Amino acid sequence: MPADALSFNEKQFRQLIDTLWSQTLNPMWVCKVVQDDFEMVSANEAAFRVDANQKPGVLLSDVVKKSGHDNSVLAGYFTCLEKGEVVEFEQRPFVHGKEMLFRTLLVPIKNSRGAITHIWGTAYNLSDLLDAQLSLEQDKDALQRKLTERTQQLHAARRTLEELATKDSLTQIANRQFFDENLTRAVLRANRGKEPLALILIEADYFKRFNQRYGMQAGDESLQKIAQVISQIDLRQDDVVARFSGNTFAILMPNCEASDAERIAKAALQRVQELKIPHETSEVEGAKVMTVTIGVAVSPFGQITSDSLFKEGGNALDIAKASGHNCVRMTVL
């Protein structure tokens, strides 16, 4: 996906969601997970037109009973909660005495600790195909194609929303929010299992001077190249590479020994220099190309907090910059 396709700011993104919620003809609703049930939080006008019982505060089990829905509806919610993944199924409610056909999609919403707190739902009205489905056997293929097309559209929309929520729009690697969520989980895992945890902070050297000399466009392009080479280092599946702030990147490495963290940091140092991005205003001795300075913090046996790990990583980065930049310095807690 092109980078400019994800250049939404938060206000534009909220406006998009509000517009979809209020103007779509498809029902949308949100339920909160409660003990052995789900509580209605909100539903749009399209949902109320289908079922007026979907009022805030009402339990989903009561909505099912009052509206005469099939019990598979409630089962779909519990499946979504148990598996923690998207669930799709058909509903055939009676609206004003007429049987309708809906394709329902349930999406789990998780908090920063990974626990499912709410379930977002939407339904596509496919009732215009119901008569043909019931009366003409040969129309089954057409129905399936339309269902598949609609499902693909839903999946594409969901992927776009996920990318907006987790990716940095400039570099296309993880953003700060995604990194922070993974850091919280990694710290809990390290403390619980007394496992090592490593944090690598990578800062592009004299980046403000680079922008002043070569322009903001060149600065953005250099950050994209740095992000790309860092991401191509031999990292593991659980490692997270993110743009932490303007010219600073971070690598989170769960269950990683100090020697491996230092090896990855040195590889990042070398690969950025091998890009040979011209940087005539750099004060790094012997280098007129873009370089990075790296600080590494490693907690060998867990028993760490996110703040203390970042503090030690920042201290290591400061020591590296005081040592002349374009080097790696490591702190083992």
Automatic annotation (TrEMBL):
<dbReference type="InterPro" id="IPR029787">
    <property type="entry name" value="Nucleotide_cyclase"/>
</dbReference>
<feature type="coiled-coil region">
    <location>
        <begin position="126"/>
        <end position="160"/>
    </location>
</feature>
<protein>
    <recommendedName>
        <fullName>diguanylate cyclase</fullName>
        <ecNumber>2.7.7.65</ecNumber>
    </recommendedName>
</protein>
<dbReference type="InterPro" id="IPR050469">
    <property type="entry name" value="Diguanylate_Cyclase"/>
</dbReference>
<keyword id="KW-0175">Coiled coil</keyword>
<dbReference type="Pfam" id="PF00990">
    <property type="entry name" value="GGDEF"/>
</dbReference>
<dbReference type="InterPro" id="IPR043128">
    <property type="entry name" value="Rev_trsase/Diguanyl_cyclase"/>
</dbReference>
<feature type="domain" description="GGDEF">
    <location>
        <begin position="195"/>
        <end position="333"/>
    </location>
</feature>
<dbReference type="InterPro" id="IPR000160">
    <property type="entry name" value="GGDEF_dom"/>
</dbReference>
<dbReference type="GO" id="GO:0052621">
    <property type="term" value="F:diguanylate cyclase activity"/>
</dbReference>
